Amino acid sequence: MAKPLMAKATAVWLVDNTTISFKQIADFTEMHELEVQGIADGDVAAGVKGFDPVANNQLTQEEIDKAEKDPLHKLKLKHNPAAEGEEKRRGPRYTPLSKRQDRPASILWLVKFHPELADSQISRLVGTTKPTIQAIRERTHWNIANIQPIDPVALGLCKQSELDAAVQKAAAKKAREGEAMSDDDRRKLLSTEQSLSSEDEHKIPTAIEGLETFSLSDPEPEEEEQQIDADSLFNLPDSDENDDDDDKQG
Q1: Nearest partner of 25 among 47, 43, 46, 50, judged by Cα
Q2: Which residue has the higher pLDDT, 77 or 236?
Q3: Contacts for 114 with CB less than 8 Å, ≥ 6 apart
Q4: According to the model, what pLDDT value does residue 134 have?
Q5: Spatial CA neighbour of 24 closest among 56, 55, 53, 57
Q6: Domain count, the chain
Q7: Where is the composition biased (Acidic residues) (predicted)?
Q8: Boundaries of domain holding 169
Q9: Same domain, 96 and 54
Q10: Nearest to 99 by CA among 141, 176, 38, 158
Q11: How confident is the prediction for the chain on average, in pLDDT?
């Protein structure tokens, strides 16, 4: 149930002007019953002026009458049609002043490692503007030479869950559009939890291809025959020849 405006002041008015039970008032204002009793005894909310819920369009007189006649009746907040469909103000995420200088680094990180994210998604994640994102994408930002990409989660500009949700949304959009994605792109679109819990065999990076057959175990007999002796490899002289050289020098 929604909480009325100025709950404590509303409780003061109901205690002073009605015979509704303390429990009914406590349930309506989301206060403790003993706190409401304290208001009646003058121990709580001393000096607080009562807030009339009827005059302020929060309760009807009929609802109060029902509650006075029936101690089990629960007061219901008056329905206000004007409040329907109201949403929180939408806009860029607020970023503390101390972290605003880190936003370009986080934008560059997102642009580099998650190019599938739309500018609007990046704007919501780190609290920036589309012109700034565009400037970093096109490398026309005034400080682009000094910007290093840094994970926005590490900078505290957004949560990992928020980043994962944005990435998943981008993945769903690409799937709907039927756009072909490479293995690397698919890996980027996985959330952190999915990536860690995946049991699939991971693709070997290009930089170390060809080393997949490398083993530290004992070589097969055929391989032992092909091994080159260290002495023959470096053409080390025999120990006897060394002794002869020492005698000549002596």
Answers
A1: 50
A2: 77
A3: 167, 170, 188
A4: 92
A5: 53
A6: 2
A7: 219-228, 238-250
A8: 91-196
A9: no
A10: 158
A11: 75
The rounded distance, in Å, linking the Cα atoms of 219 and 224 is 6
57: left (phi over 0), alpha (psi -120 to 50) or beta: left
Q: Which is higher by pLDDT, 87 or 5?
A: 5
**Last residue of some domain: 196, 211, 245?**
196
* Rounded Cα distance, 201 and 17, in Å: 72
Q: Is residue 233 part of a domain?
A: no
Residues 96 and 78 occupy one common structural domain:
no
Residue 157 shares a structural domain with residue 136: yes
Angle, in degrees to the nearest 10, between helices 33-41 and 7-17:
60
The DSSP secondary-structure symbol of 146 reads G
Clarify whether residues 188 and 127 are in a common domain.
yes
234 within a domain of the structure (yes/no) = no
Residue-wise pLDDT tens digits, 223-244: 445 555 555 555 555 555 555 5
Q: Is residue 204 part of a domain?
A: no
pLDDT at 16 over 70: yes
Assigned domain for 24 exists: yes
**How far apart (Å, rounded) are the C-alpha atoms in residues 67 and 71?**
6
> Across residues 139-156, what is the average pLDDT?
89
Contact, 15 vs 63, CB < 8 A? no
